[in-house]
Hints:
Chain A has helices at residues 3-35, 50-57, 61-78, 85-95, 100-117, 121-142, 147-161, 169-184, 197-213, 219-225, 229-240, 246-264, 275-280, 286-304, 309-319, 327-343, 354-373, 395-408, 421-440, 443-454, 463-469, 473-482, 490-510, 514-542, 553-568, 572-579, 585-594, 602-606, 612-615, 622-637; strands spanning 375-378, 386-389. Chain A is mainly alpha-helical.
Amino acid sequence: MRRDTLIQLLALACMACFLAGSVFMTTRVSASAGRNRLVYADAAVMGDSPEIAAGIAMGAFRGVFVNFLWMRANTLKEEGKYYEAVDLAKTITRLQPRFPRVWAFHAWNLAYNISVATQTQQERWKWVDAGIRLLRDQGIPANNSDILLHKELAWIFLHKIDGYMDDAHRYYKKALAYEWSIVLGKPPVMPLGYHDAAAAQEAYVEKWLKPIADAPASLEELYEKEPLARELAERIQKEAGVDLDFRLLEYIDMLANAQLRASAIGGIPNIGDDPLVKIMSEEKYRLTGRELVRFVRRKLLTETYKMEPDRMIRYTQDFGPLDWRHAAAHALYWSRRGVEESLRRVNEQNKRDFDFVNTDRIVVQSLQALFRSGMIFFDTANPDFYMAMVNPDFLDSYEKYRDEVVSRAGVFEQPGRQRTEYREGLENFYRDAIRYLYRRGDLKRAEQYYTKLRTAPWLNDNTDKRAIYGRTLADFVNHEITDENRFESPPVALQEINGAFEAAFVEGLLGGNTPVFQSNMEYARLFYDKYQQTQKFQVWVAGKEGRMGFPPFYILASNVLARLIIAADVPQGPAMFRRAPDELRPRTWVLLEEFGYPARFAEAEKQGQPGFKVWFPEPSGVAAAREEFQREADRVKQPAGQTELK
Amino acid sequence: MAQGPFARTLDRLDRLQHAFWFKVIASSLIVLAALAVSTTYSVRLAAKRQVQDTEAASRAADLRSTIEAEQAAEPKPGTAEEKQAAELRAHALAAELTYAQANERAIAKLLASETDPTVVIVAAAAISAMLLTVVWLGQGLSGLAILLIVGLVAVPLMRSLNPTMRDIGRFVAGFGCLAFSFVVLMELLRVLLGGSNAVLAIARNLVNEAVRIKVSLVFIVLLLIALAALPGLLEPSTPLRYRVQSFLQYGSGGTFWIIAILVLFLSVSSLSSEQRDRIIWQTMTKPVAPWQYVLGKWLGVVGVAAVLLAVSSTGVFLFTEYLRDQKADGESAPYVPSDRSGAMSQDRFVLESQILTARKSVRPLLPDIDPHAVARVVAERAEKLRQADPAYDFTAAEERKLFVDYEKEVRASFFAIEGGQQETFEFPGLLEARNADRPITLRYKVDVGANDPKALHKVTFMMPNLPAPIVKEVPLGQMMQLTISPASIDEKGVLPMLVLNGDFYNYRPGGDTMSFPPDGLEINYSVGSYQANFLRVVLVSWLKLALLAMVAILASTFLSFPVACLVAFGVFLMAESAGFLHEALEYYASTGQKGEIIWHRVAIRAVAVPVSRIFQFYSSLKPASALVDGRIIAWDRVLLAFSVIGGVTAILFISAVAIFRRRELATYSGQ
């Protein structure tokens, strides 16, 4: 055999071996890719960015290139080098837009890893927001029905922003509340003392969301509906120099706040020369201007934030008055949307998918979060003040939705299981609800929930719990309060009392809900008395009378109120002060002076603006309050080592 | 043939730009302009510095008076307990003052970079040198015309209201300037290689070839386009420090790769095409020795590489300085923090103290290991192994392995802290950092269990003079940074740092054990300027290119164009990825969990391990990465690189010459 023939035969044999190997390997690689959902976009569809087509055009080299980028992204992340993070995330997600884990990985990286590596809260928020935007504005639109992405996005809202794990969580909450106050406008003001969930739901839908949902969807539609809109839009852009986007809404909000502050004290707002005010206050634009603002809100909501106004309305009707300035409202929106989109293609196989079950859980957890803190006190006029209170409007929807998801959870919630997440969650939820309703004075509903708790089927064979839940409602709440050694530690006791005070002042005074104010004050008093008694008993045993005692009840309460007023500032602070009862007002006034709060108005007063005494007129009984404080100070000085109240 | 009026004018202008008196006048004007710019700028900066000094002095005075007021407000101690408390408080206030003053001094030093005229003077000198070169090459008017044309196209575009047109305008201006600089420097290179020596003649020919052949021209144009377009790709919303780092990474790292590919192509193409097309006959039949031929080719390639590197590096350097003068996050104007209470925004602080600088690193002191104890443990372990396997052979190599394993264990346990526990680490040799009064940076990486990517861990750091413990929430397995004041370093230059595994303010005993990996705890401090480091980085990059050029030349002395390309590129890729390969091999064992041999891995390791070792030094030189991280490449490192790479290049050169000498290059080998 000739040498050349031998080489050719050898080459042929090699080729056959490699081909066989290739077939074998390709099958395995494809199977693995399928299992791990490693999907490349192999066809560009309408609306895809040009990069997707470019990625497809790279053909087989795309995989190699993407691998290289992944390795680089991971290495840089481990080395704490984040300068390329956004660029790499963009490039990878553009090359693999239909691979959900890519979006999830990068969003997580931005929101969790990079954010904590920065030093300032503003910058932290920027990265958290970047993670949210990556998923919400790009990832989900590219994978509309993927449940993993919905779950990840909802989790960032619920855990990163609404949770307490991150040191900067307060800043995130305020930033989100500010952003959504601008996008949707401030939520409708409910009548003072409202406690009707249905009325709130209706107001939120009719006065807040519906006008936006019904706004024109495009500029052309707006121009057709409002002939003056084109002229107005052009004038706003040319004369005020603002585009029809977030900045316009922010500008309008800023002007409205200035007007509000001025009108609150009866002065004349000094914003008449502002070009935007001049344009918008022209009579001919009165209706057109309103329509234009609604159009901008809708455009922002649908095009930038990729949210559907109709879905927001539906969820508000289904779950309760969702305050979109609250992170849990967004968590609920995206998790519920993920579940709904996935339900269309649910089958026996993906029913057991953890992503599916976990997303359902986030809906439930969001409802829980909305119950615990869904009532927000926030105003863009004073964005430093943010308070979140319990919102009982979500009590019923939690239960309702919980039943729905249990029926869907399959093996994870089988009755035979010793411990299931929803069961434990429901039990805790009932206990919170009962305590809260009791504190609020709503004994009827508290009794209803207590009945549900004590008759829960899973308690049948739990004798310990049956013993606890066998008490009367009052005994049960008393047990809940006195349990967990709450009276042994002054900080814990103080925390409980302060919590009741805050609810009384914010939800009661600021929210104008007198029954809530009263019931919370009573609860605080109950707890205070109980603590003082326990302490008296303990110090009697220890032989050091008064060592851990609190100051008199109203001094304690006025301390909390004064601090809240300073934090809330104008206009919420004066509102709380005016509505405070006579026992609190003089003491609070004295403390505001003590804390140096009047100095905050000194500069404004020099410029002819209202001063401290305009916002906080001196109430009667200030002299007596001063004497009381003096007596208390003398009492504290006498024995050494007394507890200092901070 | 009679010339038209236009051609005659051009002819006259050409004579004019070659006239000696024209060159003298033009040079004088250029020098005067450079002096005027430098002086005016320096005077402006001096005035600014004065304002900065006044502000710094006022801040320092405010600080002192605040703390003194606090001290004065302290109640007079009565009882012994109160006295003790007052002493503690006084100590804390003194520490606070020391710490704050050190921070203030450190910030003042960082702010000094804003008013440092060196950059402007260097830039003015570089531009003047470029223009003088143009003038003395007799191209003064041509150069001016080219710059005018670029300006006429770019300026109106840059002033357009349309952002896309503005971007195009910037690109045209950038590309024009880079192309102009390239042409001028290439001309200068030709002049430098203008001697009658055979080596220089061959080098000169190669330089001409570089702009003539398509393959290199494509890369030159690509390089200029990429550099001009790069600034436009930076996301303006990202923090300034990240923009600077991205630009440095792509600007210096990316251009190195493009030039490296060009160098490989140019070298291989030049040598192999001359052999293939028999052009080499004309050279080798002249009195030219093979060494002269090889050296000439190499000189030409490294000359072109130097020109390209000079153009791209100058562009990168000047644009980085431009970026530095942009508004950072948290600033209302460049160098002016939005929050007037602080002297510097965080973004600016990190940029100046950690990126645009040259930092050295120090790792903590490791525990002393008692040799007797080690010997005892090693003996015990060997005994256990012998009991388990009677055939176990306790050789010297085995003893060494046991020793290394034990040492690793001791160190790992030193860097591990149980939940709720604390450990003190001492960083020695920081006297220079203390005296320099510049902020220092702690780089740390925390590992907990298998490093759950979704988990965050709380760690507390405490150091002398620190007003309060610092609690950080850290993602696992990722390098984090923490800025530390030099006030925490003691007189001996030691920084003792206490690390608590947990949250100091919300202390709970127990919890997961955390550990720092061997490279996961170090202190970085500035020891030099970023500008000088940049120069060294460029030098090291050029040295690497010089080696690559010789590799490609060696390959083309005996291989055809495609094969030589494959070999040269293979070597380049292997050399660049050797670091990654080295790390990857640590996790790529040739034995399975039960000790069984995995044969295909053995085969792969047999190739990969030598490759990773051969190119270890080359891959450890990461000039772009050092620049991006603000790490110093010291002169001794440059010298070492020069020796090692120079030595290897010399060996490759000798090999190339030897191969060339053995080949019968001037023999007709066609059909």
